[in-house]
User: Fold these one by one.
Assistant:
Number 1:
Amino acid sequence: MRTARHYKRVVATFVFLVASLAVALISTAEVRAQSGWQKQWEATLAAAEKEGRLEIAGPPGESFRKAIVDAFTKAYPKIKVELLGGSGGSKVARILRERQAGVFAWDLYISGPTSALAGFKPVGAFEPLKPALILPEVREDKNWIGGFDSGWADTEKKLFYAFGGTLAGDNIYVNRDFVSADPIKSARDLLDPKWRGKIVIQDPRVEGKGLTDILVMSLAYGEDFVRKLLGEQKLAVTRDRRQLVEWVVRGRYPIAIGLNEYVLVLFQGKGAGQNIGAVVDPKTIIYWASGSSGIGLFNRAPHPNAAKVYVNWLLSRNGQVEWVETLTNSRRTDVPPAEPKSAMKPGGVYHNVQAEDMIPQRRRIQQLAEEQLR
C-alpha cells in the first residue's frame, strides 16, 4: 500500500511539474511576443517622429481631411501630415507622371481600390502592406467583418486593403415628395415607361458611384437590363455629385442612381430633401463597395516609418472611430457604423464590387454605358 501511495504521489508531483513548466513556457512565449511587437512599435514611432512628416494622397472633402489629417495629428502631434485631395483618376495620373520623372513624393494612397490597383499595380508602385502592420489588434480576425483577410482588394491579398465600405444595394434613391413609395421596389421597376426622363445618374462611363451602382444592377439583373435602362429611359447624366443631389432635392429628377450619401446628408442638415431615401433591393444586398476606404503603401516612400505608424493607427479601433465621421462605415466589428442601414453585418458573406477581380466587369459596364449614353 505504501508503495502504491508513494507511486501515486510521485506521478502526481511529476504531472504537476510538467503542467507548471508548460504554463511557464507559454507565459514566457506570450511575454516575448508582446514585448517583441511593443519594441518594434516603439522603435518605429521614434523613427517616425524623427522623420516628422507624412505625405498622403487621399479623397477630397473637409470630412475626409478631418479624419485623415486632423485626427491623426491629434494622436501623433510630432508628425505633420500633408494631404493631396482629389478624384482617384486625377491623383493616379499625377503620381504616375511624377514617378516616371523620378519623383517619389508620396507615402500613402487612401482611396478606392479600382483606380489604385489599375494604375499603380502594373508599374509596381505599391509596397506589401502586411509587414507594416505591427499592432496585434489590427490583424485579429474577430475585429473585422468576414475576418481580416476579407478586406484585401488585390488578388494576391498583400497590396491594397479595404478597411470600410457600405452595402452596394442602396443604388436607387427616390424623393418621396414626388414619387410614391409603392411603385419602385427594385431596379426592375425603373424600366417602367412612366419614369422615362425622370432619372438622373452619376456618369457611369467614368469611375465613381454611378459605375458601381450600374455594375451591381448588372450582376443582379444582367446586361440586357442595363442596356434597356441606359438606352431607353432617357437618363440625365452628370459628373457633379452636388448637382445630382440638388436635382433630386428639387424634384427636377426625383429618382437617382449613383447618389452620394455624404452630399445628401449636407442638404438634409439644412432641412432640404428630408423625404429622399434609398430603395432596398433584395437582389443587390449581397454586394458592398469600399468607396474611398482603401489604403496602399507606396514603395520608395520618403517617410516609411511615419507611413507605418499611420497605417496601424488608421486600421486600429481609434483610427476607425475617426474614419466613420466621414459617414463611411468601418468593417471593424468594434466600431459602431455611421449608417446602420447600409452596414455589413458580422457573419454575413459579401462581395466587394471594387476589388481587383471585378475590374474587367467594371470595364465592360463602362463600355456598355459608352454605347448607350450617346
Note: The longest strand covers residues 53-58.
Number 2:
Amino acid sequence: MAHAIEVRGLAKRYASFWAVDHIDFSVDVGTVYAFLGPNGAGKTTTTEILEGLRRSTEGEVRVLDLDPWTDGYALHKRVGVIPQDFRFFDKITPKEGVEYYGRLFGTRPDPKALLERVDLVDKMNSRFDTLSGGQKQKLGLALALTNNPEVCFLDEPTTGLDPQARRSIWEVIRKLKREGRTVFLTTHYLEEAELLADQVGIIHHGKIIAAGSPDEIIRAHGRSERLIFTAPATLAEHLSRTLGVAAEVVDGHVVVSLDSIRDSVRILNAVEASGIPWDGFVTRSDNLEDVFVRLVGPMDDGALKPGVPA
C-alpha cells in the first residue's frame, strides 16, 4: 500500500454551498502531510470525512484502503485522533486515561511506556486539571496512540501552547514518523508545517490551490531573494539607474530583488560607492508563511514580524 490516504474528486455540499469542491490528494505511508487553510476553507470538513465522522457528497476517499464512512468500525481501530483543543475528565490521571482508552479499544497498552513516548511519564499520576496546556496535549497524543494506530490525525495540536511546549509536541510528531506512522496534520502555524511536513496541501474556498513539498510550493509561488536596506528612497533610484536592478521603497526600506545571490556583492559595492548614507541590510527569501499570505491572506496566528517589509 503506497498511499495511507487517497482522495479523488472529494466534494461536500450544504444546500447550494460547496464546503469542499472536488479535491484530489494522496498521502504516502510513513509521511507527515500538513493540510493548511484559513478558517472556513474546508479543512475541518475534509478531515472529518477522512476520519469517518462526516459523509461526503461526491468523490472517493480511502484511508488505509478502507472507506471511512462504510468501514468506520474497522478503520477506527487503526487510526488515532487528537481533536483541536483536547479536553478530558478533570479528575482522571494520565495513567488512568491510558487504561480507560485501552479498554475502549480492546487493547492492553503499557501506560508507563506509552507516556514515556510523549515525555509525560513524570505526570502519570497527576490529575488532568493540574496539567499545563502542553502536558494536556501530550496526553491527547498518548490516548491517540493507545490502539497502536497506523495513521494519526492531529488537528492543530500546538495551538495556544508556549514555544517550548510546541517544540516538545514537534518532537513527538517526528517520533511518530520515525516509527513509520502516517501523520495528517492541520495547523495554523506555517513554521510548523514547513519544519515537519513532507507534503503540504493548501485549501481555500473548498479547493486545493497549492500542493507539494514546502520547498516546491515556495519555488512555485514565492518571490526571488532580495536585499532590504535601511536607507533613504534615493538609494532605490540610484541602484535602478546605475545597475538596472529592480529596486523599490517598501515600508520605508529599500528592497532590491536578486536574480542570483551572486548579484548581492555587486549591489553592495554599488551601495557603498554611492555615497548615500545607509544603516544596514538584511537578506530575505520567502518562506511558506509568505507564500500562504500571498495566496489566501494572513492567518490569525501567522502575522509577519513588524518592521521588516515582506
Note: The domain at 224-285 is CATH 3.30.70.2810 (Alpha-Beta Plaits).
